[in-house]
Every structure is written in structure tokens, then in C-alpha cells.
Amino acid sequence: MATKESIYFNGMEVRFKLDEHDTNKQMTMFECIIDAGAKMPVPHYHESFDEAIYGIEGVVTYTIDGKETEVGPGDSAFVGRGIVHGFENRTNERIKFLAVITPGIFGPAYFTEIAAVFNAGGAPDMGKIKDILMRHGLVPVMSK
Fold first, then answer.
1. The dihedral of CA 143, 127, 90, 83: what is its sign?
2. Cα–Cα distance measured from residue 92 to residue 25, given in angstroms and rounded to the nearest whole number
3. Which one of 24, 36, 108, 126 is most buried, by most CB atoms within 10 A?
4. What Pfam families does its record include (predicted)?
5. What span, in angstroms and rounded, lies between the C-alpha atoms of 92 and 57?
6. Is residue 58 pLDDT above 80, yes or no?
7. Above 80 in pLDDT, residue 19?
8. Nearest Cα to 44, choosing from 79, 8, 68, 96?
């Protein structure tokens, strides 16, 4: 498999290792590298796929179904379909984790589209962000 390009936005770099084309849509696998202090813009859940996380460097704090879970090197976490979650880097150092998605219906297109909105300059258009999330099977959950 050829090396895939990195996608960078909002303090997060994504490097796909396997995408839907490599696995006949059975799974996707990517590294997330998160800058110090960065977090996902909005908690969300996945309609049609599960996600497993494996810590490589540093500690990422996931909130899964309302419970905080720290994932460090060698640790793992599972986020099933329909479970609200989000993550952030609360540390002063860069962190890295591996994400595996099954089935492989979620791939680089989502991150490329989101990056285009965040990297356009100025405040991101949250309406566009929500549309992209929904189109790719991620349902945003706004705080009350």
C-alpha cells in the first residue's frame, strides 16, 4: 500500500494506514496526532460504525457515555455505535493514538472535508461542520 498523505486541522493530524479501499470496507485504521491543548469541536456519536482506540504516545482524555477515560501508551478504549463521545489533549505535549473503525465506511473524505472548513481561515462555519458530520454518519450532540 502506498503511503497516504496527512490531513491537518484544528490541532489534529490524521494519517490513514488503511482506508476503505485497502480493506474492501471491512475496517479503516488511522493515527491521530493531537497538539497540546487541542480537542474535538463537539461531542458526537457514530450511527453505523464502532471505534477502537489504542494509545501510542502521551495521554488522550476521552469522554465516553459521560465517563472520562484516559488512554495512554498501551491502553485501549472502545466506542460502540450510538455512544456519545469526544476527546481532548489536556497535556502540554503532543499525543498520538491509533483508531480502528469497523466496518470501514468512515475514511479520509470526512477529514479532508472538515479540514477544508477549519483551514479556510476565520471562525469555522459550524453549519458546514454539522452537515459534514451528518453526511459521514457522525451525529453531533450539543451541550445543554
1. positive
2. 36
3. 108
4. Cupin_2
5. 13
6. yes
7. yes
8. 79
d(CA 40, CA 56): 18
Coil, helix or strand at residue 125: coil
pLDDT digits (tens, 9 = 90+) for 91-141: 999 999 999 999 999 999 999 999 999 999 888 898 999 999 999 999 999
Sheet strands (E) in the chain: 6-9, 12-18, 28-34, 44-46, 50-57, 60-64, 67-71, 76-79, 85-88, 95-102, 138-140
Q: Superfamily for 6-139? A: Jelly Rolls (2.60.120.10)
- List beta partners, residue 51: 79, 101
Tally of CB atoms within 10 A around 95: 25
